[in-house]
Amino acid sequence: MCATRVSAIYEAAKSCAYRIANPQDRVMRIVDFHSHFFARPFFNALASQSPRTGSTEEKLAALVEQTGMELPSPNIAEHTARWLLELDRSHVDHMVTFASAPEEIGAVTQATQLAKGRMTAIAVCNPLVAGAAAKVDELLTGSGYRGVLLFPAMHHYSPADPACTPLWEVLERHRAIAYVHCGMLVVKIRDLLGLPRRYDLRGANPLHLVPAADAHPGVTFCIPHFGAGLFRETLMAGAQCENIVTDTSSSNAWIRTQPSQPSLQEVFARALDVFSPARIMFGTDSTTFPAGWRADRLLEQRTILEGLGVAADDQQRIFAGNADAALAGSRATA
Predict the structure, then answer these.
(1) Average pLDDT estimate for 223-246
(2) By the 8 A CB rule, do 193 and 50 touch?
(3) Integer Cα distance of 250 and 287 in angstroms
């Protein structure tokens, strides 16, 4: 579908949309630094790997029946239009979104082109795959991507491994962003499709990022979800390296694993103390429909920061300014 058609779909939906956010939210710029586009190729790829019986279509139909989630349209323009409508409903200025499987990279490339500046693309990467660094270089140079999403526990390596050095060198040259998932790893869609959990959390310690961050100061290393259970280690890594940041995305259910059972407000307070407002990025971890863009997480986090007495200027850094700066640095080399 051409850009003219996606624009028509988007404008038609926008005209009848109910705005769920308070108009005063327009005072603050909002950039979601962590979301998953989850286009149809992502679902097709996982279903094709699933050991469940049946065709790809039958496995996906069973997934929908089991969860109530909505499969995205196979038409990338339509799926893009739906995400843009979500951003408008919640007054979100920009969304950084991931190609969460290699098979989804082309779809997210198309989506960010159609979004005309409202979305930035990040590509999943396994640095152990032959030619991975060269492929990332290509994406950062000509496809509009601004960084990579890494899962050391899933792909069985440590960020400190020498095998990662070619990737770090490419990211440094582009002043790009490396999201490195640390701590607990649960991918519900993989579980529901019966894909085995072959995760090795020994490679997912945030402290393993320190050597790479020290050696490559031009790379912004983002530890999502406050470290997803390895909160102390995330704080230590952030205290050690100025180019390590953290994001606030997801439900942060990892808190249940902590012996001290901190509240999310206490987590924010400790992160602010160590990272300062200059190195915390707002994120939602929005993924599928009908949930869509998680406005509830924005409200929860704004309420927490207000309760902590965080100044308006510092809140603006967390909700947009820090992301703007990281993305601007990477765009400057593209």
Answers:
(1) 98
(2) yes
(3) 10
CATH class as words, domain 28-331: alpha beta
pLDDT tens digits, one per residue of 280-317: 999 999 999 999 999 999 999 999 999 999 999 999 99
pLDDT, average across residues 194-223 = 96
Answer whether residue 333 shows pLDDT above 90.
Answer: no
Assess whether pLDDT exceeds 70 at residue 272: yes
* Tokens of residue 141, six digits: 């140079």
From residue 224, alpha-carbon distances to 33, 92, 204, 247, 254 in Å are 10, 20, 12, 5, 12
Average pLDDT, integer, range 58-72 = 96
Reported as type and span, the H/E element at residue 247 is strand 244-247
Tokens of 205: 């310690």
Can you read off the two tokens belonging to residue 192?
Answer: 């529901």
**Residues 63 and 188 sit within 8 Å (Cβ to Cβ):** no
The continuous run of DSSP H or E covering 313 comes out as helix 312-316
The phi, psi pair for 305, rounded to 5°, reads -65, -35
So where are the chain's domains? 28-331
Minimal CA–CA distance to 37: which of 104, 118, 94? 104
DSSP string for 87-147: HHHTT--EEEEEE-SGGGHHHHHHHHHHHTTSEEEEEEE-TTSTTHHHHHHHHHHHS-EEE
234 contact partners, CB below 8 Å, separation of at least 6: 182, 183, 206, 223, 226, 227, 246
